Each structure stands twice: as C-alpha cells, then as structure tokens.
Amino acid sequence: MAREFTLAELIEGVGAGDRRAIARAITLVESRDPAAYELVRSLYPRTGGAYSIGITGPPGVGKSTLVGALIGRLRRDGTTIGVLSVDPSSPFTHGAVLGDRIRLVDHFLDPGVFIRSMASRGHLGGVAEATLQAALVLDASGKELLLLETVGIGQSEIEIAQVADTVVLVLMPGSGDSVQALKAGVMEIPDVIAINKRDHPQAKTMLNEVRAVLALGARRDWEPPIVLTEAARGEGIDELWKAIQGHRSHLSEGGRLEARRRRSVAAEVFALASARAKLHLERAVAGDPELRRLLDLVERRELDPLTAVREILERVFRIEGGSDAADPR
Amino acid sequence: MAREFTLAELIEGVGAGDRRAIARAITLVESRDPAAYELVRSLYPRTGGAYSIGITGPPGVGKSTLVGALIGRLRRDGTTIGVLSVDPSSPFTHGAVLGDRIRLVDHFLDPGVFIRSMASRGHLGGVAEATLQAALVLDASGKELLLLETVGIGQSEIEIAQVADTVVLVLMPGSGDSVQALKAGVMEIPDVIAINKRDHPQAKTMLNEVRAVLALGARRDWEPPIVLTEAARGEGIDELWKAIQGHRSHLSEGGRLEARRRRSVAAEVFALASARAKLHLERAVAGDPELRRLLDLVERRELDPLTAVREILERVFRIEGGSDAADPR
After folding, report:
1. Partner residue opposite B265 with nearest CB, options A44, A88, A295
2. What is the spatial distance between Cα A21 and Cα A16, in angstroms, rounded to a whole number?
3. Would the CB atoms of B295 and A40 count as touching at under 8 Å?
4. What class is the B47-253 domain?
5. Per-residue confidence at A106, pLDDT binned at 50, 70, 90?
6. For A223-235, what is the mean pLDDT?
7. Could A279 and B307 be called an inter-chain contact, meaning their C-beta atoms sit closer than 8 Å?
C-alpha cells in the first residue's frame, strides 16, 4: 500500500480527480496489489459516466499519433480525457519520433488529460485485467472520455479494445493482411475505420479495398464510416471525431448503448475469469512435480496428450475427468 | 461409433494406412466422439515417425496453393503426406479458384496423400484439439510428412502451426501488417519465410522489408531463410523445400529436434487444458442461473467485475477466492 495515501484517501482522491491519487491507483492495479482490488471495488459504483473509445490496429500504422491528434482536437472543447495505451511500441514509452513526443508533452502537462502506458510485460491476460481495472479508475475519476489504445493483429490482442463503446480500427496503405482478415471474417468489423497516412500514393487503393470488404457482408445495423487521416499533420481528425460521434449518437437510440455495455461486461468478466484460470493452470503445472511427470510421460510417448490433459484438469480444477468439458452436448 | 468399423478394426486400419479407416478416425475426432479418445490413446505409441511442417500466414497470401505445389513436389520423391487445413477460406472447402481444384483433385486420388480440411465451426480451442488429434492419427497411419495449414494473424490463431517441427510463414507483397508484427515482436519469428506471388511488382520491396526485420533481432541459433515463390505456377517450390530440409537437418544435430518436440508437447498439453478449462467455464456460466445473476449485478454496477470473476472461479473451479491466481508471486 502507498505510504502517501491510505486506501480511504486514495478512493477520495480518485473520486475528486486528483492526478497523484489516480497515478498511484493505477500503479497499484498494475502491480496487482491486494489494495487495488479493494480500491476498484469501492470505486465501481461511481463508474459508467465515461464514454470509451477503443483504438486498435496493426503495429506501425500510427495509432499513437492519431490518439495524440484526437486529444488535441477534444481538448479544444474542454473534454476531459483518460488514455490507456497497451501498445508495446507506443510513443508513450519508447517508440516515438520527436514530433510525437513534443505533441504529447503538452498533453502530459494538461490537467484535463491523464495518459498512462500499461506495461505489457507478462501474459496478455494480466495486461488486459490491469487495463480494464485502470479504465475503471479513470472512469471513476470523472474523465468524460476514455481512449484505450491496443495493438490488434489477432482476436485475443484486440479483446481489450472490444469492450469500448466505440471501436476504431486504424489501417494504413499496406495493411493488406488486416483487410484480408476482415474479408475472411478472422477480424471483427469495427465501428469506425480510419485509414491513416492518406498522403501515401496507395491510400486511395486501400480505401477502395476496405469499401469492397464492407460491401461484401450482410446489411448491418450500423455501417462503419471510413475516414482518411494524416495524423502526423492533424488532418482528417475532425472527420474522425464526427464519425465517432455519429456512432455514439447511433448507440444512444433504442437502448443500444445499454445493450452493448451488457454484452461487454459479460465478455469482460468471462475473459478475465478465463485468463485467471489459465494463469492458475500455468502455475499449478510449473509448481507440481506430479504434473511435470505427466508431461515427461507424454514426451516419451508413454501417455497420450488428451489423457494428460484430463489428469491435469482433474488435479488442478477438479473437473470430472475433463470429459464433461469435451462433450459438446 | 462407426457401424463399419469396430474400435479394434479402426486402430488396425489406421495403423495399416487404410484410407477409409483414417477418414473415419478423423471424423470421430472432429465430432468429439468418446471413441476418438480411446482410438488416439491406443494409436499414440505408434506416433512420432512423421515430420511435421506448419504452414501459416494471413488470409489470401496463397497458402493453400503453396501446399498444393509442395505436395506435387514431394510426391515426385514418393514421400507419403498427410495434410490438415484449418483455413476457413481454404480451397479444400469452398474458396478455391478452378486451377487449385484441378491440381488438388490429382492429390485427392493419390493413395500416398491424405488431405483433410478441419471444420472451424465453434471455438478455436476445439478446432486446435481436433487438429492435433487428427495429426496424431495421420502420424500413426505411417505418413512420412504432415502439413498443417492454419490462418495466422494473431498469437492464438497460429498456435496450431507452432507445434510443428518446422514452421513456414507465408507472406505476399502487401503483407505490411505481418512484417510490422514480426518487427514489433507481436508475431514469433518462423523457421522459414516464403514470399508468395513473386511476380508482383512489390515483391522485391517486401523481400527487403522482411530481410531488414530479420537483421534487427539478436543473433539466432537458426537464421530463417527467405524464399520467393509463385505457387500458382509451381515456381520457387524446390527452393522452399530445400529451405525446409535445411531446417530439418539443423534440428537433427545435437538433440535439437527432441528438445523442440519436448517444448511443443508441453505447450500443446497446456494449450489444450486451457481451452478445455475455458470451455468448461463458458458452459458453467451459461447453465448456472446464479452465475448469470452475478453478471446482472455487474451490469447494474452493484458488483464490480473482479469480485464477480472471483466468485465465478470459486464456484466453477473451486479456486480459493481467485486471489492465488491473481497473485504474481
């Protein structure tokens, strides 16, 4: 527990939007301090006021620059913003070009913005859990808008962004693999698509490819707008913000936002429980000589993998023979 | 259980390389028939003779065409081959251009080749389990080489291919996202890289980008060769095969193959156990009104997500408070 804050002071401080209290709270969450659990539990009834935007996309497309430009745009309206970045190559940590850093320094000093890069050390589940808890802290602190930036290239990696109210997928000319993944249904259709680096000679081609992919699917409740941006020069940011607001007002009708948040909460709780079960399993196998011995037997082909799986599940989770888990009925 | 085969006949038939027995065995595995478990358990001591090659890469790069061309090349040497494809857009199922189908029809009729497309319906863990069990069936049937084709765009999707002895990543000009993912360390470095569609004007650029990424990392035990192919015309296939053989002979020295297979088996058992635990959790939550009620409380912000996670884990897996799972020590 922090020396500077008691738990009660921390709850009070976060609730009042105090920067030092927020920073300390997120550090507790990241270090998986038992006090963090109590803290978020106490803060939870105060959450739900923030609107969250997930910014996802493959590495190198300029997500962080786009986030920086969006912050600049939103601060002109006085909107308070919390930013969590789980991009391992994020400018908030080390991957920045000078221009990004300079732009972000302004935001770091702005009391209406709280920016935090989430350490992606360790397993994906742990980062997801810490990020979602940190988002609750920022929500409870009174920030009106949350930006969750994640690197998405597969399903598990973009899970974090998927809990947001609006999911923005950022692509750039050359993002052929992501376009193919959208086409093949490997990647979910986002709410807004931004094609960054619009000055690139292939930008128009990418736009047409993305349009063609969106035209392929069944009619949707919401057709994702495609916005061309040049984040490094702040171009297209107004249009991007309008597209996000368009989705937000779409959600505001007919109880759509509530329904979406219900699904998100269920998915989130399930994902966290799965990640914890997996971690528990990992530690059990690492710490139990009997389970190590099972793996040795499989390696020597004296025991087949599924029998080993069954015995491990029985031993670690007391799942009856693992057979009920395998049965699709 | 099959009417045509008793379990004993099936074991016998697969061991003798009988096509109908192999087909029936894989169908049992896919349908999660309890007999499949007994079958693979009985066959397991006969496995380990096949050398396995994982072929992975984003959708649309031509993996299946490449697999078809590789089969053609290998059959000239008389090598017997088992092929499992878990690509949802695979030509083995529906996504084929005419040329692919014609080329593959030859292989379908060839008694030295067994090709099977694994249904990717349902969750990823289930497909992974069925595919790995089917690979054991093909291994036990005496096939000398196994080709495991999977669509890789994120970590979980390529797990199946990662258990292979040699992992080939297939890219094409335009695979910028995958190159960036390799660069950012989001995607693991494969053993061999094939750049397909080498006649594309941007093929040389892609080659240089991939070279630059490989040059970035620390010195490796094995430097992945990069091969340019034009699978649709069978070009570069000899070079690709030489690169794969190069990796195989590298593994044959100093017990490297055994060490790699030990790691693969452990990873495989762990992945299957995790997938089963996750499935068990999913069913428990779906079937238990008390657990549904917890989610409702979270949705109404009367209970925080982590407390719900703890209660779910306690109820489903009897994990003590979930806290030991959360504790990193």
Report:
1. A295
2. 9
3. no
4. alpha beta
5. low
6. 95
7. no
